[in-house]
Design brief:
The structure holds two protein chains of two kinds.
Chain A lengths: L4 E3 L2 E4 L5 E6 L6 E8 L3 E9 L2 E5 L6 E5 L5 E5 L8 E8 L8 E2 L3 E5 L1
Parallel strand pairs in A: 2-11
Antiparallel strand pairs in A: 1-3, 3-8, 4-5, 4-9, 5-6, 7-8, 9-10, 9-11
Chain B lengths: L2 E3 L4 E5 L4 E3 L2 E3 L5 E8 L6 E7 L7 E2 L2 E6 L4 E6 L8 E9 L10 E2 L3 E6 L1
Parallel strand pairs in B: 2-12
Antiparallel strand pairs in B: 1-4, 3-9, 5-6, 5-10, 7-8, 8-9, 10-11, 10-12
Classes of the chains: A mainly beta, B mainly beta.
């Protein structure tokens, strides 16, 4: 158990819809990262939050947004979903162990139909 | 720009033998960390091993060791005494130096699929 909790594990939704993915980092970790893993793009960094503030942005679409709350959990919002958004979305956290480890949640498998 | 290259899309090995998974990286930052992850068919990302750019010795974690050759910018993963349960996708990743109080994102290679045969 990595200590990073993601919900839900699976999500099936229709095109055009909006979904929210949730992540609780390991206790004490201030940084949360979101990654997307698709068959054609591999593992891509989307966005990082550090202690409630956006820290870095990767290849995140404008239809996607995220935030980190005061209790440090984070949510990734995906809107106007397209078939190509189907992927495994991971949340990771780091900070407590001095950067020598980075722990991932179990991922949310999103299927857009 | 930082980049991770894994040139072996697939590898196979006989059970109980050792296998090396290749990883080369590119960065201009003198301070960085290298990670290896295992992703079984169930999908989760399992952290295996870490090597810091200033570490003098190669990292080891049980049956996993990292062959770190800094001048060649390579960080190969060696799995000794392969087991059937080692069959999975393996990703090499890199993180450049952090910021005050925190750490930057990971950049991943394309991965190597390892099949362990009985």
């Amino acid at each position: 158990d990595s200590g990073v909790t993601q919900t839900p594990k699976h999500l099936i939704t229709a095109t055009g819809q909006r979904v929210t993915l949730r992540c609780s980092p390991r206790s004490g970790d201030l940084s949360v990262y979101w990654y997307q893993q698709s068959l054609d793009q591999g593992l891509q960094f989307l966005i990082q939050y550090y202690n409630g503030e956006e820290r870095a942005k990767g290849n995140i679409l404008e239809r996607f947004s995220a935030q980190q709350f005061p209790d440090l959990h984070s949510e990734l919002n995906l809107s106007s979903l397209e078939l190509g958004d189907s992927a495994l979305y991971f949340c990771a956290s780091s900070g407590l162990t001095g950067g020598t480890e980075a722990f991932f949640g179990q991922g949310t498998r999103l299927t857009v139909v | 720009a930082q980049k991770i290259t894994q040139t072996q899309p697939g590898m196979f090995v006989q059970e109980k033998e050792a296998v090396t998974l290749d990883c080369t990286y590119d960065t201009s930052d003198p301070s960085y960390g290298l990670f290896w992850y295992k992703q079984p068919s169930s999908g989760e990302m399992i952290f295996l091993i870490y090597q810091g750019s200033y570490d003098q010795q190669n990292a080891t974690e049980g049956r996993y060791s990292l062959n770190f050759q800094k001048a060649r910018k390579s960080a190969n993963l060696v799995i000794s005494a392969s087991q059937l349960g080692d069959s999975a996708m393996y990703f090499c990743a890199m993180r450049e130096s952090g910021f005050s109080g925190g750490y930057n994102k990971l950049i991943f290679g394309a991965g190597t699929r390892l099949a362990v045969h009985p």
